[in-house]
């Protein structure tokens, strides 16, 4: 961690204790490159939605301007970083939430080795449409997957429809088009940007329910989140996918075409 600020300043000991002991709030994570972000407006919209859902608080008209200032202040002279912006309860429970900006090292340019994923039918996030602080379930699912010899976990609901990974959305390819699961889940910023970019590039895609039984029909699977747009998935349970399939290339090229928004 390079820096963390609360409402634009270093938190004192009492504030640090409050941040560490109250697990309530919501956040968004973004990759900053040369002090610019892909999909910045989508990140701000996510935060505004989270404030209404978890705090019953509507953003002020100048809130985006304030967020830009808080992010730039926390970055200091840093130009490339991973930035997490969180809204947490303030000292006054009836007042507006506080803003925490955490600055860490940027994600690697290249994705990690292809993932070996385990289906976890018990893993389901609370309030799945929001990116919130209740993350114990997803980290437990990931820990159990690793203990069983896998890298990560994929949520499948009681309806046997594929949902999402622990901290990522999943995309599939059937040789003709990109398929995104439609289910109770987080619509990640990277996923939305990819869908827009694929459309702009004339690459066919659809978002629809994906039954677990259909995993056999796909040629490739890729995990996407704020850290990568093309993390290949080598296998889901005992079903293997070919490395170097067209899907990762399609998503990588689409994401590279997305413009940056200056902070």
Detail the topology: elements first, then pairings.
Layout: E1 3-6, H1 13-21, E2 26-33, E3 36-38, H2 40-55, H3 63-75, E4 81-88, E5 98-104, E6 115-120, H4 136-147, E7 152-156, E8 162-165, E9 169-173, E10 178-181, H5 189-200, E11 205-208, E12 220-225, E13 228-236, E14 239-240, H6 246-256, E15 260-262
Parallel strand pairs: 6-7, 6-13, 10-11
Antiparallel strand pairs: 1-5, 2-3, 2-4, 3-15, 4-5, 7-8, 9-10, 9-12, 12-13, 13-14
Helix pairs in contact: 5-6
Describe this structure in words.
The two termini are about 20 Å apart. It is built from six helices and 15 strands. The relative contact order is 0.15. The longest helix is centred in the first third of the chain and has 16 residues, at about 40-55. The protein is globular, with a radius of gyration of 19 Å. Helix 4 links the parallel strand 6 (about 115-120) and strand 7. About 30% of the residues lie in helices and about 30% in strands. Strands 6, 7, 8, 9, 10, 11, 12, 13 and 14 form a nine-stranded mixed sheet that branches. It has a six-stranded antiparallel sheet with strand order 1-5-4-2-3-15. The chain has two domains: about 5-105, Aminotransferase class 4, branched-chain amino acid transferase, N-terminal domain (D-amino Acid Aminotransferase, Chain A, domain 1); about 115-260, D-amino Acid Aminotransferase, Chain A, domain 2 (Alpha-Beta Barrel), CATH 3.20.10. With about 260 residues, it is of the alpha+beta class. It has helices spanning about 15-20, 40-55, 65-75, 135-145, 190-200, 245-255; strands at about 5, 25-35, 35-40, 80-90, 100-105, 115-120, 150-155, 160-165, 170-175, 180, 205-210, 220-225, 230-235, 240, 260.
